[in-house]
Amino acid sequence: MATTASGHTLVQPPGATKPRRETASLTTNPGGFWFVLPFVVVYAAFTIFPVLYGFGMSFFNVSLAGAPTTFVGVDNYAELLGDAQVWRTLGHTLLFTLISTVPLVVVSLAMALLVHTGVKGQWFWRFSFFAPYLLPVSTVVLIWNWLMQGDFGFINGVLDVAGLPRVGWLSDEGVALLSVVLITVWWTVGFNFLLYLSALQAIPESVYEAASLDGAGGWRRTLSITLPLLKGTTGLVLVLQVLASLKIFDQAYILFGGSGGPGGAAAPILQYVYDTGFVNYRLGYASAISYVFFALIIVVSLGQFALSRRRGRTAA
What we know:
The chain has 13 helices and 4 strands. It is mostly helical.
C-alpha cells in the first residue's frame, strides 16, 4: 500500500510487483565485457605498453649499436636541458605552430563562407578545397618540391613573369620554414573547411531571416550572427590545429631529405628525436627528449581546455 499527498491510500492489486530498475554490470551482463576485451588488449599492447616501456627506457643508456644497456637515472633529462639543438628544434616547432595555425583557421573559414553563400558550382569548390587533404604526404611534398625549385620551379617562373625576384624556397634559411607552412596549409586546410561548413549549415535560417527583417545587411549578419555562433567550432579548430602543428615531422623531413633544410632552419624537434634515436643510435636519450615534448603537449592541451571552459562560462 502507498499513501498519496492528499492522504488517500492506494492498494496494489494482488500479484503486482514494484517496478525494478535494471542495472547493467559485468556480473549481470558479461557479454559487453567480451565485446570490449579485444579492443582493450590491442590498445594495451600497442599504446599503453609502448608508452610505459619508452618512459622506462628514458632512464637508461640504450643503444641500437649493440653497446651494453646501463642505468643512468635522470642523466638523459639533465643532458637535454643543456642541449642547444633541443631548444633550437623546439623553437622551430613552436614558430611553425604559430605561423601555420592562423592561416589554417582564417583561410578555412573564408572558404566555408564562400561555399555557404551559394556560389555557383558548389560541388566543384567543395571538391577542390577538400581534395588535397586526401593525398598522402609524400605526394603533396613531391608536387610542391617541383613547384618550389629555384631554377625551373613554377612559382619562381610566375615571379619572373611578374617582374619580381626569385625566392629560394628550398635554399634560403629565412624561407625554408615558410615553405613548410605553405605546403601544410594547402594540404590540410580542407579538413578545417569541412568543420566550418558543417557548423554553418547547422545555423537556423530563421535567424538570418529575422536579421534581414530588422534591416541587417550581409556583412552585419556575418559579423553579428555567423561569427559569434562559430566560436565553438573555432575553438575546436584551434585545439586540433595546434596539436597537429606541434607534431610536424613528415613534410619537413621529406621536403629537405632529412637535412632539416638549409642550415637546419626547418628541422622540427621530432626530427631531432628521430635522428638521435635511429641515426645516432641513442634510444634512451631520444626517449627522454620525446617525453619532455610530450609533457609540453599535455600542458598546451590543458591550457587550451581551461581557456575554452572559461569562455563557455563567460558566454553563459
